[in-house]
Write a structure and sequence with these properties.
This protein is about 40% helix and about 20% strand. By secondary structure, it is α/β, with parallel strands linked by helices. The strands form 5 sheets. A 7-stranded mixed β-sheet has the order 12-13-14-11-10-16-17, sandwiched between helices. β1 (about 1-5) and β2 (about 10-15) form a beta hairpin. α9 crosses α10 (about 275-285). The longest helix is centred in the N-terminal third of the chain and has 25 residues, at about 75-100. The chain is globular. The termini are far apart.
């Protein structure tokens, strides 16, 4: 049995039965049977279904948003926006699907050839709690368009969201077995990956979970995409609009209560603009209104659980032991639930072990640097390489940051955010493979050469 806990109150938000082995087997068999027919459907039919699914998500966005807020604590307004973003992903793939999957002619010395994108089969997704809809739809929308079928193993704390996703897709007229939720424990994932009916796996989550899934996929010789943690740098240079950068940095650090892989976690600021940046940034972090996520005037709700809050507080103790100074914040307000106010750390030793970790909560590290070379060195001084944000008006600096920061994504003069059109993923210990855009669609397809 799974029980989701409302992190704003500490009270149960719902209970959900775990599947038996027989029930898992039945869903696997149904997925395999559905794939045999779905793979033969026309692109027009698949795109029509994607549009209907988008309509269904938009129609139910308020109810879906409320489930996410109750299960993991994000503000209701951001939860509803997340559902709307899911609809935009379905519409993107519906609009561009025929072009993305069009056969490509290949010139040969003699004769002709064609490269074709073909579906592979049932794909397993292992997904986290922090964006309980968007993380799933980044996988589900291209899976359906590709002619594959999807199986979801969602985080145990957001089983209400998992069930709602399957119900919404079915409500739109999806064939039974096209997308199925599997309420199971993590210990059963390796057996699923080993099953011959599963052709590939995608995971968004921690390094530890990614390593286990990659190991299981490697043993089974199956394709895997991993989107893991990040400790994204947010670099501000002298030519930047410093006030805009500082205001944006507040949102970039506190969105989703700081629980996003692509949150800006390390502010790397040039000495010439450090004081100006800090004045605006500190004021903005202090002004973030933390409270009931259901209220429209709340900026930031609780963390996802008391355990997650305790993890962040434990990291802060390690920072203090390593000589860092907490300027303000990172306090437990007088509220029930897993709340933690935004905080700012300075005087951080970048070589300390804790500085190389990801802080999955609303606490920022701020560093002062002297030049672009030091900024890039510091940006790359962690084992992660997911995203980055750089603020400079100098084209040469923009080009150098884009070239030299070890990350899968670099935003220039804006906050990094995922979008259906652009590839999403990282390097180093942030994983491999890409989601979204044509790249995410093609990850789990057979690129077949037809010669002659």
């Amino acid at each position: 049995m799974f029980t989701s806990i409302n992190p704003a109150t500490g009270e149960p938000a719902g209970t959900f039965a775990e599947l038996t082995d027989a029930q898992v087997e039945w869903r696997l068999q149904r997925a395999a049977e559905t794939f045999r027919t779905w793979r033969l459907t026309s692109l027009d039919e698949r795109c029509d279904l994607l549009r209907r699914i988008a309509d269904a998500f938009e129609a139910d966005k308020d109810a879906l948003g409320r489930i996410a807020t109750q299960e993991m604590g994000k503000t209701l307004k951001s939860a509803i926006a997340e559902v709307e973003k899911c609809a935009s992903a379905f519409r993107y793939y519906a609009e561009h699907g025929p072009a993305l999957l069009a056969p490509q002619e290949i010139a040969l010395p003699k004769g002709r050839a064609t490269a074709r994108w073909l579906p592979m089969g049932p794909v397993l997704a292992v997904m986290p709690w922090n964006f309980p809809y968007w993380q799933v739809i980044r996988f589900a929308a291209p899976t359906i368009l590709a002619g594959n079928v999807g199986l979801l193993k969602h985080a145990s704390s957001v089983q209400g969201c998992a069930a709602a996703i399957e119900a919404t897709i079915r409500k739109a007229g999806a064939p039974e077995g096209l997308f199925q939720n599997l309420p199971i424990k993590s210990a059963k994932v390796a057996d699923l990956i080993a099953d011959d009916r599963i052709v590939a796996v995608t995971l968004t989550g921690s390094e530890g979970a990614g390593a286990k899934v990659a190991e299981a996929a490697g043993k089974a010789l199956k394709k895997v995409v991993l989107e893991l943690g990040g400790s994204d740098p947010f670099v501000v240079m002298p030519s930047a609009d410093v006030e805009l950068a500082a205001r944006t940095a507040v949102t970039a650090r506190t969105q989703n209560s700081g629980q996003s892989c692509i949150c800006a976690k390390r502010m790397i600021v040039h000495a010439d603009v450090y004081n100006a940046f800090m004045a605006t940034f500190a004021a903005g972090m202090k002004a973030v209104k933390t409270g009931d996520p259901m209220r429209p005037d709340t900026d930031m709700g609780p963390l996802s659980s008391e355990g997650q809050r305790d993890t962040v507080l434990g990291q802060l103790a390690q920072f203090r032991d390593a000589g860092a100074k907490l300027l303000f914040g990172a306090e437990r307000p007088d509220l029930p639930g897993a709340y933690l106010t935004p905080g700012v750390l300075v005087d951080v030793d970048p070589d300390s072990p804790v500085a190389r970790e990801e802080i999955f909560g609303p606490v920022a590290m701020v560093f002062k640097i002297a030049d672009i070379g030091e900024a890039i060195t510091l940006a790359n001084a962690v084992p992660f390489g997911l995203g980055s944000s750089v603020w400079t008006a100098e084209p040469a600096e923009q080009d150098r940051f884009a070239r030299d920061i070890d990350a899968g994504m670099t935003a220039i003069n804006q906050m990094l955010a995922s979008t259906p059109e652009a590839p999403f993923g990282g390097v180093k210990r942030s994983g491999h493979g890409r989601e979204l855009g044509p790249w995410g669609l093609h990850e789990f397809m057979n690129l077949k050469a037809v010669i002659g």
